[in-house]
Amino acid sequence: MKYRFKDNFWFGCAESAAQIEGFSAENSKAPSTWDHAFATQRHRFFHQHGPDDSRGFWQNYQADIKLMQKVGINSYRTSVSWARLMPDGYTINEASAAVYRDMLVHLKEAGIEPVITLMHFDMPLIMQQKGGWLSEEVVDAFAGYARQCFALFGDLVNNWITFNEPIVPIEGGYLYDFHYPFQRNFANAAQAAFNTQLAHSKVVNYFHDRNCAGRIGIVLNLTPSYPRSTHPADVHAATIADLFFNKSFLEPALNGRYPQALVDLLRQYGELPDVTPQNLDIIARSRVDMLGVNYYQPRRVQAKQTAISPSSPFMPDWFFDSYEMPGRTMNTSRGWEIHPQGIYDILTDLRLNYGNIPVFISENGMGVENEERWMENGEVNDQYRIDFMRQHLACIHQAVSEGSNCFGYHCWTFIDNWSWLNAYKNRYGLFRLDLSTQRRLPKASAKWYGELIKNNGFN
Ligand code: BGP
After folding, report:
1. 165-223 pLDDT, tens per residue?
2. Which residues are catalytic?
3. If 164 and its partner were Cys, which of 120, 416, 418, 459 is the partner (CB 3.0–4.6 Å)?
4. What's the CATH code, domain 3-458?
5. Beta-carbon neighbour count of residue 335 at 10 Å?
6. What residue ranges do the domains of the chain occupy?
7. What is the whole-number distance in angstroms between the Cα of residue 331 and the centre of ligand 1?
8. Buried b / exposed e along 122-141 (16+ C-beta atoms within 10 A)
9. Angstrom distance (rounded) from CA 105 to CA 115
10. Does residue 165 line the site of ligand 1, with CB under 6 A?
11. pTM of the full predicted structure?
12. 426 CA from centroid of ligand 1 (Å)
């Protein structure tokens, strides 16, 4: 077999609570930021589908786990909903805790290793009303919630993730208006980013100080920044994009400190957030045991082409322009470039420059609009997704054969799921979700992935 992986390699899938659970008010679940966003700004959601239109995993997990077992995945990442487990942000809802425990027991019994994310974009509304990530009270409340999760589920979970893609709620919520609270304010973005890192570090330190069983990490969406040319201005632009969107979380998570070049740049423009030496010490002593990498597409960067108006507010894009790679292969329906080599470049960078930290690909997949176009005899024939996954897995295999410490691959997602403002616009699943009947229909990729897992590789 051309691409054979080692025996204990994870072949799994990833999802998140708000995107699959539904039943938004059951067991006294409190409204989360995304429940609130939908209740108040419904028009922004694709075809007005909200979190309740998800596939109802909260009540269907037993059947869905059977499907996972049938495909043969050996690991599965999902998240706990803080608003469901602790509706007031502090007090455990025993009924919800019991359901999460039962879900974990079912995964274990099916031979599927649970990987649990504590924060995948969705926070209890009451915490957002206290200031969200701008508030240190919320940072401490999050650390308390994490401690409760370790106590409640630690005997069933060996792999913990603090945050999924922490940069995304910062970009979306405080810079580019696609996540709650839909602001455009760099000072808030910088403070929320720092406080998110602090929350992560407090949880990691607790986990290590208490010798909690298992390992803890973070999931980052790393987007390699490729300069348009070797011209120093293009290279500099790519370096700055990399600082803002990758290294701002990668370096503190792995090295315990912020990149000096980012600190210098923010200081120069008077945009440093408020930090205390004590908080920097907390970050300094927190190191993750493993890293999850979500990879979808690279960032193509060139030097800024137009002058910035002196009155425009500070933004990362002051320093670079993005461009579309001529002749690129593209996921036309998502508008994203397909560049499997990016996953190899990330893994190689981690091997060479970050101590070859244990890493797994925590999300990779292809979102397609109007996927029913490819329906044949009741099944979506998604050869494009098979090609996408195969190409990325070949690059992972190459990186591993050169010494990368990559120990797994999670495809996004198992069943089509609800995706924030995009709702069901881009279908990613190995199974199609029929929204009107809630039926789960295997796509060709589900069978292909099952075969690959059985053979531990592919040709
Ligand atoms: C990642 C998130 C997922 C999911 C995915 C696809 O950034 O971790 O939660 O949303 O992107 O997003 P979309 O449906 O917008 O293509």
Report:
1. 999 999 999 999 999 999 999 999 999 999 999 999 999 999 999 999 999 999 999 99
2. 363
3. 120
4. 3.20.20.80
5. 12
6. 3-458
7. 15
8. bbbbbbbeebbbbbeebbeb
9. 13
10. yes
11. 0.97
12. 9
